[in-house]
Amino acid sequence: MPATDAIAHRLTRRTGEQSYSLRETPFDSETDSNRLLSEIKPLFTRRASKRYGRFADEATPFKGLLINWLDDSLGFTQFSHKVLEQLAMLMEQQDLETDGHWLFVVEELEAARRLWITSLKQKDGLLLNADNDLQHTGYIDFAKTGLCACIDLHDMGNPDKKRYLTLSFGFGDRALQAPLMEFLGFTDTVDTQADTERFMEVVRDYSEAMPEESAKRYQKEVAEFCMEQSKEGEMVNCHALADAVDSVAEVAFDDFVAERAPELKEEFIPDRSSLKKYIRYTGRTREVSISFSNESLGKTIAFDPEAETLTLKELPASLIKQLKGEA
């Protein structure tokens, strides 16, 4: 099974008060450890705001502990204990608040070995027991998962690898983001936004030879393909995209890239926020919320850039009824 070791510890820190409890042994049940991992990985994959990089050259306590564990100078449990103690010290020094469990999981695959570190929150709930009585209980609220760090331990030992540490943060983690990245010694090595915008710039140039309607549809389908790859945790391969998205241009996308943009990366990690504008235009104020497909612009929706106004045709039937007071 993929999860070979897993352990969790509790850390609570409020202003003027701090406590933590350390588990003394890894979890006994491999099945339960794998279930935890199976909950965390899809959540991690679906998150749009991941950051990709490696450890900074400067030594940090976390990096030192990690190397000691990999060198067998520390056991897995000792390693997790010392990391939590360092986290508790960080929270105290920077007067940060936190409450939850920190999960450490080692994942062994045929071609990869990874360490997952995840901040988990619990939620109160009710259950019906065997006697059909209500009981109070607590359970892991995966929707509130905080920091999730994935370290590729094989690539970490390869000096040629520049991307083996991936981080994502949950809602409510804003105050902890910078301190935790500093604690881990994280440094960015991939600018997903710049890579995505450069790629879509080439896509726009390629689609200029198409009729306007076909060009917009092509850009949208390319953006949707990239979005789906991101949701699956996959990189975008330019050759795979050329096979997956139909083009009405006379020149194949691969050939266009080879001639006009040979420096373009063959594979890149897509940034979802940069892709959204190629699928839908959206905007809101306190009084108005607008969202429409990019293909509608110039057809049923017209934009006057000088007057900064939109003209809408073919309104939804339900909206017309509301405006007429019929619904």
Automatic annotation (TrEMBL):
<dbReference type="Pfam" id="PF04245">
    <property type="entry name" value="NA37"/>
</dbReference>
<keyword id="KW-0963">Cytoplasm</keyword>
<comment type="similarity">
    <text>Belongs to the YejK family.</text>
</comment>
<dbReference type="InterPro" id="IPR007358">
    <property type="entry name" value="Nucleoid_associated_NdpA"/>
</dbReference>
<protein>
    <submittedName>
        <fullName>Nucleoid-associated protein</fullName>
    </submittedName>
</protein>
